[in-house]
Structures are given as C-alpha cells and as structure tokens.
Design a protein that fits this description.
Blueprint (H helix, E strand, L loop, with lengths): L6 H20 L3 H22 L4 H15 L5 H8 L18 H10 L10 H20 L3 E9 L9 H18 L3 E5 L6 E4 L8 E8 L4 E9 L7 H18 L5 E3 L7 E8 L13 H21 L3 E2 L12 E3 L2 E3 L4 H6 E9 L7 E9 L4 E8 L5 H19 L4 E3 L6
Antiparallel strand pairs: 1-5, 1-6, 2-3, 3-4, 4-5, 7-13, 7-14, 8-11, 9-10, 11-12, 12-13
Length: 418
C-alpha cells in the first residue's frame, strides 16, 4: 500500500479533485474533460496495483478494457441496470476521444517498480485510500452541466401603468423564442411567477429555459441550462438562444443591458419532525406502513391548511414528471411518474421560479417520509425577502403539528431555531 504514498498517486488524486470540483465548474471545456480522464485513470491504476502488485499487467488490461467500454455507447444498458439498483445515478458522456488517456495506465504499470513513496504514517495512507475511493465515485457520478443565467433591467418599469403591457410583451417574446427552438412550456404561470420551458420531458431536467419578471423592480431573469449526456452538444444551442433572447429584448427596449447572474442558494432551511407514535422502528417495516400512511396524510392536511394561509400553493402532480428521483416503496423502486412518489413527497411553494425544476422557488415547504421514524417538513428560503415569512410559517406549523400529534412527537429540530 506504499504505492498510495508515492508522488505520482498523490499528485494524480489532487489533480483529479481540483479538476472535478473547481476547474470543471469554472471552465468545463475540452481540456478539463481530458484532464479528468488522464488523472483519474492513472490514479485508479496505481490504486489497483497497490491491491494486486504482482498482477500489474493483468490490472492494466482489465482497466483499459473497462475504460474502453465505459466511454462507448455500448455501456449504456449496463449503466441503466446499475442505476435501477443504486440509490444514486452514475453518468458519463460517451466520447471516443477520451481514449487518449489509455497510455497513462500502461505507463504506470511499466514504471511502477521505480516509484518511491514519500514517508507517511500508516493512518495517512489509509486516509488517502478512502479519499481516493470517494473521488473515483464522485468522478463517475459527475453530470456535466452548461448554464447561462442572466438578469436585465427593463427601462420602462418605472411607469406602473405600463407594467401589464410590458409583462405581456415579455411573455409573448419568450413563448415565441421557446417555440422557435423546440422548447415546450411545462410550467405556464404568469411571468411574474415564472415560466419553465423544456426540450425533452422524457429525460428531465434536460434542456430547459426558466424565466421570471419582477414587475416591482423591473428585473427580468432567465436561466438556460442543459445537463446530462447531451450537455456538451447543447452548448452551442444555449449560446444561440441567449443571443436570440438578448437581441429580441434590445428590439423592445433599446437601452436594456443583460448581466450575468448567480443561481440563488438556500438562505436557511428549518426542519420540523413528526416522530412515530409507537417506537423508533423504521416506517419501511411492513407492519408500520399503516402508521406511516396515517401520520403522513394527517401531517400533509395540517401543513396544507397552515401554508395556504401564508399564500403558498401546492405543487400539482403533473409537475412531478420533471423530477428524477427514485424511491423505495414496499421494497420496490418507483420512478417520479408513479402515484406512490406523489404520495411520499408533497411540496408547497411561493415566489418566483429561478431554475430548471418546478421546485426551484424562493420559498418551499417539502413534506417527506423517511427510512427512520419520522415524517420530515423542510421549510427552505432562497431569498432574504422570505426569511421572516419562513420563520412565521415554521412557528405556526410547529404549534399546529404539536396540537395534532402532541409535543413529544412534533418539534422544530435542534439547530433550526438559530
């Protein structure tokens, strides 16, 4: 295992981590893609040779064959089978040019006997082994994404009488552009709430355009994103749509300026838990299913009544086709289109749409079951504007759930009060 302390392995792992978690997110170009393949293949070959040092040429042959298959379209049935079993999804972009990394594995095996380790304690070598396994898994789970997020100030927003006219013009503009580029409206709320257009509903979230308009401040927001196996191919189309949008906006508002924006991150998440009434045993146990159904439905009824008083809406089941989650119900894995999943997770929201999922809203309330003894309620705010409302909703939900289930069974979880 001293091979895990050699400069070649340490540098390869460091480069793999830097590339996958920093450089890819910043640049995501041809070079970062190839850098990930080369550093990952070298590091994985050294790792495998550390386990089977006397079989290094056999290791190189197996790894090379597996890499060739992994990077070809012929591996897709195997990946689909694995993804139907695992709780997370594997992904890769088939690209024959990635085979440029193959000589790296063979060169490692050729010179591996000449590698000299740095002096390291045994616990540090063990930590390197665990870290490398995590990085190998993270690399295979990486899903490429290309995104263009922009905001623009509408010059005419100051005249309140023109707001309905301006909003109507903008909505017609985006409907027309989406139609021209083969995008279909799936969340068709007014522009002040947000509209979502997608290209391929069968493989969500795929290629999408989210847009909203804040009439009070006159700020237009749009987000173009593509992820998954087609992300690299859609880069050019994203640029075309962005240019089309900005040119059309300048036709309506000659002085408009579009600027790059950042995706909002959660400002705060508060969580309320409802514990089982009988024991700490899992809800997944068949004899507890009746308790789970009763508790979950009762909680959803209480929560729906409370949040509706604060102006939140319930996400309709038709929106769930946009989500790619797999859940286990009675030992069976179900996809997002099943009624069982709609039953297992319930969402309420308020605020504008800002991303490729219908759940990307400024304020969300998510009710879900768990493998443990709880029904969870997550109240998440993505905007400073909704922090006070979030706090008020959490306090009232805690009171109402305690009145329904008792103070010993329902409470705002530790740490949420900060």
């Amino acid at each position: 295992m001293n091979l895990l302390a050699t400069p070649l392995f340490v540098v390869s792992i460091a480069l793999l981590a830097l590339n996958d978690f920093v450089l890819k997110a910043a640049f995501h170009n041809w070079l970062t893609g190839k850098l990930s393949d080369i550093s990952g293949l070298i590091a994985f070959t050294v790792f495998a040779c550390a386990i089977w040092p006397s079989r290094r040429w056999f290791v190189a042959t197996i790894i090379s064959a597996a890499f060739v298959l992994w990077k070809s379209p012929y591996s897709q049935p195997v990946i689909d089978l694995i993804n139907s079993i695992l709780p997370f999804s594997l992904g890769r972009t088939p690209d024959y040019s990635d085979y440029i990394a193959l000589p790296g594995g063979w060169l490692v095996c050729l010179f591996i006997l000449r590698l000299r380790p740095w002096p390291m304690r045994s616990w540090l070598v063990g930590a390197m082994a665990i870290l490398s396994l995590m990085l190998f898994a993270a690399t295979s789970r990486y899903i490429p994404m290309h995104r263009v997020t922009r905001t623009a100030l509408i010059p005419a927003y100051g005249d309140q009488r023109t707001i309905p006219v301006v909003e109507g013009q903008l909505q017609d503009l985006f409907d027309e552009i989406a139609d021209r580029h083969g995008l279909r409206c799936t969340v068709c709320d007014p522009l002040s709430s947000g509209r979502l257009y997608v290209k391929n509903e069968a493989a969500p979230p795929g290629f999408s355009l989210a847009v909203n308009f804040d009439p009070r401040r006159g700020i237009l927001f749009f987000d173009l994103s593509s992820r998954g196996g087609q992300a690299d191919k859609n880069t050019h189309e994203i640029s075309l749509i962005r240019t089309d949008i900005e040119n059309r906006l300048k036709t309506l508002f000659p002085d408009i300026k579009a600027e790059e924006a950042k995706q909002p991150k959660p400002r705060k998440t508060l969580q309320i838990a409802v514990r089982k009434k009988t024991s700490k045993a899992s809800y997944d146990v068949p004899e507890n299913q009746e308790d789970y159904n009763e508790d979950y439905n009762k909680a959803v009824t209480v929560i729906g009544t409370v949040v509706s008083r604060f102006g939140l809406q319930r996400l309709t089941p038709s929106h769930f086709i946009m989500e790619v989650y797999r859940v286990r119900v009675n030992g069976r894995r179900l996809d997002s289109e099943s009624t069982a999943y709609v039953h297992s997770s319930t969402f309420f929201y308020r605020g504008r749409l800002f991303g490729p999922r219908p759940l990307d809203r400024e304020l969300t309330v998510h009710v879900s079951g768990s493998g443990g003894p709880f029904v969870y309620v997550d109240i998440t705010s993505y905007s400073a504007e909704y922090l006070e409302l979030q706090r008020n909703i959490a306090d009232e939900l805690e009171q109402e759930l305690q009145a329904t289930f008792g103070k010993k069974r329902a409470w705002l979880r530790w740490g949420s009060r900060r």
